[in-house]
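Aim 2 progress update. The chain analyzed this quarter is reproduced below.
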Amino acid sequence: MQIFDVVVVGAGAAGLFCAGVAGQKGLKVLVVDHSEKVAEKIRISGGGRCNFTNLETSPNQFLSDNPRFCRSALSRYTPTDFLDLVKKYGIAFHEKHKGQLFCDRSAEDIIQMLLQECAAGGVTRWQPCAVQSIRFSDTAPNSTYYTVDTNQGTVRSKAVVIASGGLAIPKIGATDFGYRIARQFGLPVVPTRPALVPLTFNETAWAPFANLAGLSLPVNISTGNKKDRTTFSEDLLFTHRGLSGPGVLQISSYWQEGAPIALNLSPKVNLGVFLADAKSRSRKHIANEISAIVPSRLADTWVAQGATFGHQWEHSIAEASDKALQVLAERMTHWEITPTGTEGYRKAEVTAGGVNTKALSSQTMESSQRGLYFIGEVVDVTGWLGGYNFQWAWASGFACAQALAANQGV
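Predicted structure tokens:
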């Protein structure tokens, strides 16, 4: 039986980073992962260029039943810290917008950097390798250990780190392994749900808009009541089944089943004032005037819905009543619709919920089960779209590695 100081389950962003740091601090580390490909989620992220962090990262961009939990780790390993590592490896990068940093060449650069960091720490990696069971023994106060059974053999270690991710994108190997291990050791799990995911609508209700699939425009999108309303200003993308795009992915993490979302299709122009002015100077069709603000296909589709709201919008703007234009402006800037659901884990970028932070130390990521740690997406900490979830992977992995070294006297 081989003996390690640490077994890390999961060769993704959090797992590889934690393993590399721990190994370089002198710990004997084994990483195991059931997937054939290493860090596949990194590889496909950011359109293949990996949005590896966000310069504007703060606890405000994260959701959790305990919003303060992420503060400690995020403050001790910042985007600047990770950027220093990226620069050390000569990886070219650029800022897209709103602090989002991407590789110039390929996400593969980040994967290779993490693997080289692991190599520098003498980390052993078994992949593909399925973990069959994890058992804990505390027969003597100073000889507690874990026995990890895998399809490549049984190993023993002083600590186990669960970095197995969530349920998002099952086609690349996502499973509920981490939640099962948490429950095995009596740790609570916050109910999980797809996050950063497209929203879907009733087929009949969505029929007038289905032909807009592929159309994109900037919007304000919000959900929630007045007390806890959340709003994002991002692009919206129409799909055959509903809505996607950055704005929708962001709001999906806050959307509650049965609740409506509200859209302002003209976030930068006061549509009421615009239409009133157009009426005084133009004889164009209403849809033609609105096309100056939103894509023409959307303008045509929208004015065709006039009868639904008790008005006729398919004629010259000069012929329209002030009331009809007022209603049109109101409907387009306060378009309230209720999703029937989401596209689910198969299209979600991350999983909301996870191992309850009440059972974890925010300083070390160790659970109330001694020697068992949880990092990354498996924890009930979910970031916004834009590199925040990767920064949580780096920060939680770093906090864990530091604690592992300190706890084992390295």
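The chain has two domains: 2-194+351-407, 199-342. The chain has 13 helices and 21 strands. These observations will guide the mutagenesis experiments scheduled for the next reporting period.
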